[in-house]
Amino acid sequence: MSAQARSFNEPMPEGTRLYRGRLSAAQQDALLTEVACILRAAPLFVPRMPKTGRPFSVRMSNTGPLGWVSDKEKGYRYEPVHPETGAPWPAMPDMLLRLWEELTDYPASPEAGLINHYAPGARMGLHVDVDEEALEAPILSVSLGCSARFRLGGLKRRDPTISFDLHGGDVLILEGPSRLRHHGIDRIYPGTGVLPEEMGEGRINITLRRVRRP
Ligand code: MD6
Ligand code: FE
Questions:
Q1: What is the residue range of 26's domain?
Q2: Is the distance from the beta carbon of residue 188 to the nearest atom of ligand 1 less than 6 Å?
Q3: Who's near 94: CB < 8 A, 6+ residues apart?
Q4: Run means of pLDDT, 10 residues per run, the chain, 214 residues
Q5: Ligand 1: which residue has its CA nearest to atom 11?
């Protein structure tokens, strides 16, 4: 289906902006090439839940001066270095910085680009992103590779949810009154997109975040 054909009539709550097919096929390929390069320097790691140490099914890495990490001992936080290599996170691709400038009004650059890799069967439970000091800043998400079922809820965990699919090239922003909405990924749809060979089958999602107040 073309980006056009699936872009009509998707009412979103205030503060939730969905840009269907925002990246062309060529832009998606170019960004995936940059992500492949980032992942060679900062390999995907398995984050673990605070306290229980239970592994996430999603593997992660980061780009930019700060990266989101989680382990049993210290929990969710931002760190300037990779938890396994100890090296600084690779620089954020210009393409992503430009996308942030074009689509947000925020007066400072994103500091963290969290890269999530979903193999078939991986999912992301309903959560709120609250580890940032700059909660007034938007979070901008870019989807690449396979499509996925995204669930968007309310401010309270048990509020009703809506679901829609995110496809490669889609950009989703949560800001203002939607910044603290619960959300998650129920599943990905294998066979609906391609990633560079070394990443295997699956989906990549990159979320751009401002962590500290400028
Ligand atoms: C994902 N996205 O699409 C997970 N968070 O794989 C997120 O958790 C997310 O899409 C904040 C804002 C937008 C998002
Ligand atoms: Fe999130």
A1: 5-209
A2: no
A3: none
A4: 50 96 98 98 98 98 98 98 98 98 98 98 98 98 98 98 98 98 98 98 98 97
A5: 139
